[in-house]
Amino acid sequence: METTLFHVFRNTPLGREILMQSLYFCNEINASIVIYIPGYTKFLMYFDNDVVQVDLDESYLTAPETASAHALELARGAHIDPRFVQPKNFTASTLPDLPVNFDFMCCPRSISDLSSKISLGHIGPKVRRIINAARFPVLMPSCLFKEWQSILVFFGGSVNAVKALKLGLRLGRDTGKPVDLFTQADGKSKETFEKILAERDMAREVAQQVREWHFFETGKFEHNLYAVPHNALTVMGAYGHGVVRDVLFGSTMEMIQTHLPNTMLIAGPNYVMPS
Fold first, then answer.
1. Which branch of life, at top level (predicted)?
2. Is residue 274 part of a domain?
């Protein structure tokens, strides 16, 4: 079955960099891309347990006469033949309904703020809603296109952390890139985490595929993040309202973003592993 990534294109320099990240991701995992060029500043996504209205800022409607050509040029430059989605259903005359049957979706950190207002340490509320509701992982690219040479999974032992680890290992197999783990022990021993892997029959797979396990029993979490390679795709599991309980408590996802410019792939609580 074909793997697809959904991308909402913004016809601006920032939008160009983000589309380049999506295209690179697709090439790495051998996926196709579906591009939506907005004709309105709002759209709806109907998930199983939530309906998310995404409110775009006006920059997403920049120069509509060149948007398709720019997106097509970038895609062909990456040797990808894109598919452009056209909304078929509308909840209101200016409120299109977009499909959600994709394997991945690309979201910048905030899809409803002007690029000048997007801070490194802020995840927009609509992006949180998508992460919480979607059955697919959400790709949150860095603001400047950068190839990644490895995959790093934040692993804290929870159910969602295990799903994120499985996702990271799958990406490692698909791309041939090395996989690393990052764990802030938070008072637990390494044996505790190894037992979790053993109980889920993942110990051998992790031992064979993981290149390095960054395991921190001391030090502040934000200081230990320096160990994350600058050119790594980071993978993590989120739960509830979008916080990463697996690593620490509180707004850990914001803490990671504040200190890491890396591209992130986030698997939310409703993420379903493909069979």
1. Bacteria
2. no
- Apex 43 CA angle, 40 and 49, nearest 5: 175
Domain that holds residue 220: 150-267
Whether the CB-CB separation of 225 and 185 falls below 8 Å is answered with no
**How far, in whole angstroms, is CA 268 from its chain's centroid?**
10
Q: What amino acid occupies position 269? A: P
Q: Which two tokens stand for residue 170?
A: 């799958």
Nearest to 4 by CA among 29, 37, 21: 29
Q: How many domains does the chain have?
A: 2
The answer on 242 and 220 residing in a single domain is yes
Residue 223 shares a structural domain with residue 107: no
pTM attached to this predicted model: 0.90
Amino acid at 254: E
Residue by residue, DSSP assigns 26-48 as HHHHT-EEEEE--SSSEEEEE-S
